[in-house]
Design goal:
alpha/beta; about 15% helix; about 1450 residues; 68 strands
Length: about 1450
């Protein structure tokens, strides 16, 4: 049947009932048979196929009285508080009905038994009452009235972002509200909007209720009542009686009649009184009022829960010093009736509710509070000014902000006692004249309205001394107007779009002392007529010239302009703070040196070439910031000065004044980074040093080891950064004298050792010494306060371990030490560290590591001085089964939860969206919007900046690559092209984006003085923080650029990085680094040395894009082929040690976390590897690119073959348990080589499993497409000359299908594979390969499938064929056994890592390898295995 859509839309309701509380149950098919319905009321229902689930059975179809079919379904919760996971499947009729019109859809109606303020514990227990869910099929024109009539309900309610619940008007349209909400988020496709509207995750953003949800916490705080045993007075003369008792507002109300409120009501104020426990009686409380005529009531409660609830609430009331009732954020429409009994209330807070203007308990009853002085009605969506408030004549303070008010009534003049009036965030453009009669008014807030000029009534408000009009539309300011308003002293006109300030009158403006003109469009400013100006803020304008009067000037902040001249007359002798940073000043104004009281001067980021010597002779100057200028010298210090902080970084200094340290004896902070210093001056003219220097930054200079003798004089040093200089060593005797040192950065030098005297620095908690040549582990593990140690990118070979580690040690980074092999004892000892970063040993040669994709990456995450890491990095060098990559940086600012979630889920979401659309803007935008939705309840209050880069093939040219970048927030991406930086992202902060600022102003958001939306965030677009919608949106900026051979690398970083390191400097830094990992480390170290204290995240992607995007390498002939001599042996570690890396950079990285289970750390395991490697000689394999893959023969990639397709088998390392009778550690340690990348110390093995491989590469694999060779025992064997068999884990090739991955994800014991949380804020290891540790102990006890380990074959199962008999044996056995073509080990390893591993349809056949004494290796040879 067809249904005709008319303006009166038809509605269908599908009720959902909760059955049971079993976890993990899915909602089944609706499966209801549609009955015969009247033609005019047939409605086809939908659930959208992408939410279809399995496992549950639907109820039978039903029809209501109107003939509308009702489908009953089951519903289960996923444990994430009150967020419902609903999977529904509708029939074809319903889906066809949806597809017929995008204005049709489904609205989910929830019952009212859910606590809208869920507990922090998260998962709900089975005893928690579950709410019913109804699926209402309707159109965008369906009103609330129609829905209520259909379901015989009274009202509908809407809840946004888990916040307050509002009753919907009968004329509102729920489905249209959802569509408008999704459109405001950033969705543009009507079909996608229709799908998103039916998604269950959307309930965390917008949710509809069929009745008002119950909230126990709200009821407790607003009203407590019950019938209890009550006794009045402290004497025993009064008897106990059952009475109705009410606790509301500030009073205890006791009825005179049981179970009735008729008759006399006894009201006792509790503010300032007492509530005490009565120990003689169970569950008894004594309530007493304050004052000489104090009353006392004893109340016995029936249960302990009631007793605790009343005691908790009453204790809050009696502790107050004023009669304050706070009912904010309770979704109230009316004031509780019992509250009017509290006649002593003086302060009433009704902020963030939905108060009505008419009816019982509405605002019209407010005059009943006879002593009310303060009333807060902000954020109530009133729409009109409540005139009843004007009858509360006792009011002193009234707050009506953010209520969409268009006008103020004339009755406002009745509030003669009013002193404070807040009208911010409304739609006002004029004020009534009656307002001028409020003689006691001294504070008036008019910010973020629509005023185009200063209201004329301000002239009559003589008590108002501050004009708060930020965020209005005042484009021109005439100073003569301010002369008439002679009582104004403080004027706030920031964010007004102000273009000019006119001063036509010759009369001086003497009353104004403070002026705030930030974030406007001023090109010049002349305030010389403002004679008594004390404080001026004019940052972030376009000023080229500034003229001021200096008679009373105390503070001037004019940073982020284009100033070339600053004229102040007379000399501002009262000036203490001067900020002129980020301008175009070539010379410091002369009047600066004449200021007698100047304490702080900030002229950083200008083009100054010299500093006046008189400035450094100032006897008042405490802080001088002159970084990022063109200074070549610093004038000599002529006398002792009180300077405490000096910043001279990023200049051209080659030397410093010799008198610097013994003339500036109070100097505590000195930053000389990024200069050309070759030496530093002595700290004293004598042997005794008086230096008080505590922080010294000397990073990126030309210093050598001779500076150590000078540094020893600064014995009060706590922080020393001397990274990226030319130090060959550090004098041991000098380091021992820096006993107070807490943080030492020696990175980027040429140190071979760190002196053992570092153990004398007992307070040292941070040692950064990466990117050196250190080959001996320093003696730092005995330091009692050591926390962070970074020795990455060095030449360590071994570690001398103490018997125990200091309990304070939190992080140890040993990545990039290619020769370092950690023994099991070391791993067990390090397992107690919160974060351990180590390399995974790769089995491929350096040339073959970069064969799969023409790029590789490295990154670094740094806590800085923060206690937690709120930055996460996503890096996948090969996404899916093609040469594509995905990189991301996520910065949560103050939270670590959202970055972790985005790191785990955003790559998966991108893969899904790519399947739905091939348009870059569409799939990138949908990736961000879907990730925003998937944050669920975490994203309601928390958010993060996000940057995602996707490298993919050009749609029009299969041989080329494109880079698509999308971002929200302040994370940024920079591409180096021909040595120059190219910005690819947009910074969404209020200070950097004028368009975003205007958009937020139009939405009437309150922007605080620190430029934050509602005082929360400076970003205008974020993932998460949905409660700030529509001010803060998740819609990303998307930009695509084709990649070419001139593109060298890509830099991704968060706000903290690029605030300290410019784009050009970042590019130069990476160009000078040896690899992406070292480059990322250097970027973070530089940002720290340049003054950054926050979390820093940097990711560097090295690009190797050729003209045709081909990275193939010509085959290399074996130089030893045909010779009788053996070439140098190539050590090939056993197969299972191969890391499952998606990265093609050098070496994978593992991160051990103490938050993992004990089995994951391998504390119960013994050694399973030998001390020697099995060595065979192999030629270097030919490097192939993804465009020209190598040929697959019997499932193995064969170098040199082209134009053939790979097989259909996929390789995945796994966990397995092995047993052996050879020794207690499973293998003979004298004969077997250590399994690299496998950490074990017993019968359990730990091998690296890459969660990105599971999440990304297996997505496109279906069980039907997997072709598994029918061999039960397959392994790649590496045999030595004596035919010794390698480890049973050697060359393990395991088959994985999509079904296994689904089962793996569902397995509780293996859930850590898909989202292990690490203490440093990362879900996976923060290095190249993004691997984590999985433990065999937690693996399912399966004999086949994902966790199958190949059986170890005996030596006699192999037939070793000498070369002289190869042809004869080949002919004899040609028809008996399949011929397996074998290639060199390096070729196999290269093929597995670079081709087969990344091909979801590849088939891998593992053949044994043998080596024969005296025979030179050959590129190809044939062997036969009798086991086949």
């Amino acid at each position: 049947m067809a249904m005709k859509d008319k303006h009166n839309s038809a509605v269908a309701v599908a009720s959902t009932e909760q059955v049971g509380t079993k976890s993990g149950g899915d909602v089944g098919d609706s499966g209801a048979r549609s009955g015969r319905q009247p033609p005019e009321e047939v409605v086809k229902q939908t659930g959208l196929g992408h939410t279809a689930g399995r496992g549950g059975r639907s109820g039978l179809g039903a029809r209501n009285a109107n003939g509308i079919r009702v489908l009953k379904r089951n519903m289960n919760r996923n444990g994430s508080r009150s967020c419902v996971t609903r999977k529904s499947r509708f029939g074809s009729r319903e889906r066809d009905w949806l597809k017929g019109d995008t204005q049709r859809g489904c609205v989910c109606l929830y019952g009212g038994t859910v606590d809208i303020q869920p507990s922090a514990s998260g998962a709900q227990s089975s005893s928690t009452p579950q709410n019913d869910l109804q699926l209402v099929l309707c159109t965008t024109s369906t009103t609330v009235q129609e829905l209520c009539a259909q379901r015989q309900g009274k009202a509908l309610y809407v809840q946004l972002h888990g916040d307050s619940v509002r009753r919907l008007d009968l004329s509102e349209r729920p489905l249209q509200m959802v569509y408008e909400y999704l459109t405001a988020m950033g969705h543009t496709d009507p079909v996608r909007i229709q799908q998103e509207a039916a998604n269950s995750d959307l309930s965390c953003l917008i949710r509809f209720y069929s009745e008002r949800p119950a909230n126990a916490d709200q009821q407790e705080r607003t009203l407590l009542k019950g019938v209890f045993s009550v006794r009045k007075g402290k004497t025993q003369l009064h008897k106990w009686a059952e009475r109705q008792v009410i606790l509301c507002g500030t009073c205890l109300i006791v009825a005179s009649v049981k179970d009735s409120l008729m008759g006399k009501m006894h009201i006792m104020p509790l503010v300032g009184g007492k509530v005490e426990e009565v120990k003689r009686r169970q569950h008894c409380l004594m309530f007493s009022s304050a004052g000489s005529q104090a009353q006392t009531y004893f109340v016995i409660f029936d249960t302990l829960a009631d007793y605790q609830r009343w005691y908790r609430q009453a204790s809050k009331i009696v502790s107050q010093t004023v009669s304050l009732v706070d009912l904010s954020c309770y979704s109230l429409e009316t004031v509780p009736e019992y509250l009017f009994y509290s006649q002593d209330i003086t302060h009433l807070n009704l902020r963030h509710n939905f108060m009505t203007l008419e009816g019982a308990g509405s605002l019209i009853n407010l005059p009943r509070f006879s002593q009310l002085k303060t009333l807060n009605l902000s954020h109530n969506r009133l729409g009109v000014f409540p005139e009843c408030v004007c009858d509360v004549l006792t009011l002193n303070e009234l707050n009506l902000s953010c209520n969409n008010l268009h006008s103020i009534p004339s009755q406002i003049g009745n509030l003669l006692s009013l002193q404070t009036l807040f009208l911010d965030g409304n739609l006002l453009n004029f004020l009534p004249e009656e307002l001028g009669g409020l003689s006691q008014l001294n504070s008036l807030g008019l910010s973020f309205n629509n005023f185009s000029q200063i209201p004329a009534v301000m002239e009559r408000l003589s008590g108002v001394d501050k004009l708060a009009m930020a965020g209005n539309r005042v484009e021109s300011l005439e100073l003569c107007t301010l002369i008439k308003i002679n009582h104004l002293k403080n004027i706030d006109l920031r964010l007004n779009g102000l273009r000019c300030v006119k001063s036509d009158s010759l009369k001086a403006l003497s009353q104004v002392t403070q002026l705030d003109l930030r974030d406007n469009r001023l090109a010049s400013l002349d305030l010389s007529s403002v004679s008594n100006l004390e404080i001026l803020h004019c940052q972030r304008n376009q000023l080229g010239m500034l003229t001021l009067s200096g008679f009373t000037l105390r503070m001037l902040n004019a940073s982020s302009n284009r100033l070339t001249t600053v004229n102040i007359y007379p000399v501002p002798n009262l000036l203490t703070h001067l900020e002129l940073s980020q301008n175009l000043l070539e010379h410091l104004p002369d009047w600066v040196c004449d200021c007698r009281k100047i304490e702080m001067v900030d002229v950083a980021h200008n083009i100054l070439s010299e500093l006046p010597s008189r400035l450094l002779s100032s006897l008042s100057l405490r802080k001088l910031l002159v970084g990022n200028n063109h200074l070549e010298r610093v004038p000599d210090f002529l006398d002792h000065i009180p300077l405490e902080s000096l910043d001279l970084q990023h200049n051209k200094l080659s030397s410093l004044p010799e008198s610097l340290f013994y003339k500036a004896l109070n100097l505590k902070y000195l930053n000389l980074s990024a200069n050309a210093l070759e030496n530093i001056p002595s700290c004293s003219q004598s042997e005794e040093s008086l230096s008080t220097l505590q922080e010294l930054y000397l990073t990126r200079n030309n210093l050598n080891e001779n500076c150590g003798s000078v540094l020893v004089g600064h014995q009060n040093l706590r922080v020393l950064h001397i990274a990226y200089n030319h130090l060959l060593s550090f004098p041991p005797s000098k380091l021992s004298k820096l006993e107070l040192l807490e943080e030492l950065n020696l990175s980027g030098n040429k140190l071979k050792t760190i002196p053992s005297t570092v153990s004398s620095c007992k307070k040292l908690h941070t040692l950064l010494a990466h990117s050196n040549n250190i080959n001996v582990f320093p003696e730092i593990l005995s330091l009692p306060e050591i926390k962070f140690v970074d020795l990455s990118c060095n030449e360590l070979t071994e570690i001398q371990l103490p018997e125990s580690l200091p309990p304070s040690l939190q992080e140890l980074d040993l990545t990039g030490n290619n020769s370092l092999t950690l023994e099991h004892k070391a791993l067990n000892l390090f397992s107690h560290i919160t974060t351990l970063k180590i390399d995974l040993k790769s089995t491929t040669t350096g040339e073959s590591q970069s064969t799969c994709t023409p790029w590789n990456h490295g990154f670094s995450e740094t806590r800085g001085q923060r206690n937690k890491l709120c930055v996460s990095v996503l890096a996948v060098d090969q996404l899916g089964d093609s040469a594509e990559a995905c990189y991301g940086v996520f910065d949560g600012d103050r939270n670590e939860e959202v970055p972790r979630l985005l790191q785990c889920t955003m790559g998966d979401v991108l893969c899904e969206e790519i399947q739905h659309s091939g348009i870059d803007y569409v799939y990138m935008s949908n990736t961000f919007l879907t990730s925003h939705r998937k944050l669920g309840m975490t994203g309601q209050k928390l958010g993060a900046s996000a940057l995602l880069c996707y490298i993919h093939h050009e749609p029009s040219d299969l041989g080329g690559y494109s880079l698509t970048v999308a971002n929200v927030g302040t994370c940024q991406a920079v591409l180096c092209r021909n040595g120059q930086p190219v910005a690819l992202s947009k910074v969404f902060s209020l200070e950097n984006s004028t368009d975003e600022m205007e958009r937020i102003k139009l939405c009437k958001a309150i922007i605080t003085e620190d430029n934050k939306v509602s005082g929360v965030t400076c970003c205008s677009r974020l993932l998460g923080c949905s409660y700030l919608s529509p001010w803060v949106l998740p819609k990303p900026y998307v930009h695509t650029v084709p990649l070419c051979s001139q593109d060298e690398f890509l830099i991704l970083g968060n706000r903290a990085l690029f605030e300290r390191v410019s784009y050009q400097e970042a590019v130069c830094t990476v160009q000078a680094a040896r690899d992406p990992h070292a480059a990322a480390k250097k970027l973070c170290s530089l940002a720290q040395s340049f003054g950054c204290k926050d979390n820093i995240g940097a990711l560097v992607v090295s690009l190797h894009i050729s003209e045709d995007s081909c990275t193939c390498e010509a085959p290399v002939t074996d130089p030893y082929r045909g010779l009788n001599t053996n070439p140098p042996p190539l050590t090939v570690p056993p197969g299972p040690s191969e890391p499952a890396t998606l990265s093609s950079s050098s070496g994978g990285v593992s991160e051990l976390n103490s938050e993992m289970s004990t089995s994951e750390v391998g504390s119960e395991a013994g050694s399973t590897a030998s001390d020697e490697h099995t060595s065979i000689t192999v030629p270097r394999s030919e490097r192939r690119c993804s465009i020209h893959p190598a040929t697959v023969l019997c499932g193995i990639m064969v170098p040199g073959s082209i134009n053939q397709h790979p097989g259909v088998f996929q390789r995945q390392p796994s966990c397995a348990t092995f047993s052996s009778n050879q020794s207690d550690n499973n293998l003979d340690s004298d004969d077997e080589a250590q399994v690299q990348g496998v950490m074990s110390n017993g019968s359990k093995l730990e091998v690296e499993v890459d969660i990105h491989c599971c999440a990304f590469q297996l997505r496109s694999v279906t069980p039907d497409s997997i072709k598994i060779p029918n061999f039960e025992k397959e392994s790649v064997k590496l045999c030595n000359q004596n035919s010794d068999v390698a480890s049973a884990t050697n060359g393990c090739l395991l088959a994985i299908c999509g079904r296994d991955i689904v089962e793996l994800k569902k397995s509780a014991s293996n859930s850590c594979l898909f989202g292990k949380k690490l203490s440093n804020g990362s879900v996976v290891a923060p290095e190249d390969s993004h691997n984590i540790i999985e433990v065999a102990l937690e693996a399912p006890k399966k004999k086949s499938g994902y966790f199958t380990a190949p059986a170890q074959q005996d030596p006699e199962d192999q037939l070793i064929v000498p070369p002289s008999l190869e042809q004869e044996v080949r002919e004899q056995l040609r028809g008996q056994a399949p011929v397996v073509q074998c290639i060199s080990t390096a070729s196999i390893t290269s093929a597995l890592n670079n081709s087969v591993w990344h091909q979801p349809h590849a088939s891998v056949f593992a053949s044994p390898l043998v080596s024969t004494p005296g025979l030179s290796p050959m590129i190809q040879r044939e062997v036969y295995d009798t086991a086949l």
